[in-house]
Amino acid sequence: MELRHLRYFLVVANELNFTRASEKLFISQPPLSRQIKELENEIGVKLFNRNSKKVELTEAGKFFRKEVVNQLQNLESVILKTKKISENISGEYRIGYISSTFSDTITKLIQFLTKKYPYLNIKLYEVSTVKQILALEQSKLDLGIVRAPLVSTKINSKLWFKDSYSLVFNKNKTKVKEIDDISKFRNELFVFFNKDYAPIYYNSLIEICSKYGFVPNIVHESNNINSIIQLVRNGLGVSIVPTSLKKSHIYPELSFLDLDNNFLTNVLLATPKNDKSQITDSAISFLLA
């Protein structure tokens, strides 16, 4: 059975007249009759009752017509999705991010991509910068949101934004009275990212504390910024976080003390070097707008 057999059958079933059907199909009537007969022989069912006066669908033919219409509609949908995948505007799109960068902007990015590419299956992965770099080099991610530095000959990157640092603390639990300098918190307990998970970020925080003249007493570590914020909220320590987090972590008990702008961290948009994705271009343009 070939697809043309089904298409021929549907035209005849709609017209119930072989002459009109053959005109619509731009073939002569004898070949059309032969194609319908081949179809009936193949499935072993009589689809039409025919005589010199009229053509009618049998009960089996009526059922077959309904099912063929449904199947051809599904086939058209499959063909459309296949074309969209070929045009690189459908399929699976994988975005990696570090927890300290997840914000309303990323949520809006997903909404934007979903609207622009309705057949797109977007997957979000919270992954450390180190692991994202490896995944990008192996093309296991389509877009990565990481913190500098990024050193790789297999990855392209663009600066998304520069972020400063802030000390975050529970204002109801701290013993510090004059909250005007991070050095006043030298005797507080600190909550940091795990050193093995984010070594460069960890070392940056150690360096900041060193510039203020003390070594932080790190008692808790986490691989997730939300966990760090919750620990601080519960009075289990203070932390140093990117200033941009103030917008997404608004709690009455939390306060943020902005640090010297000499301490900056660059957030980058990274892609595999040979990536030519229309989706990636759209995503980056949206984030940089």
TrEMBL record:
Domain of life: Bacteria
Entries under Pfam families matching the protein: HTH_1, LysR_substrate
Domain HTH lysR-type positions: 1-58
UniProt-listed SUPFAM superfamilies: Periplasmic binding protein-like II, Winged helix' DNA-binding domain
Keywords recorded for this protein, A-Z: DNA-binding, Transcription, Transcription regulation
InterPro entries hit by this protein: LysR_HTH_N, LysR_subst-bd, WH-like_DNA-bd_sf, WH_DNA-bd_sf
GO MF, one annotated term: DNA binding
Gene3D superfamilies: Periplasmic binding protein-like II, Winged helix-like DNA-binding domain superfamily/Winged helix DNA-binding domain
UniProt keyword Cell cycle, yes or no: no
Gene Ontology cellular component annotations, sorted alphabetically: protein-DNA complex
Record family assignment: Belongs to the LysR transcriptional regulatory family.
Annotated protein name in UniProt: DNA-binding transcriptional regulator, LysR family
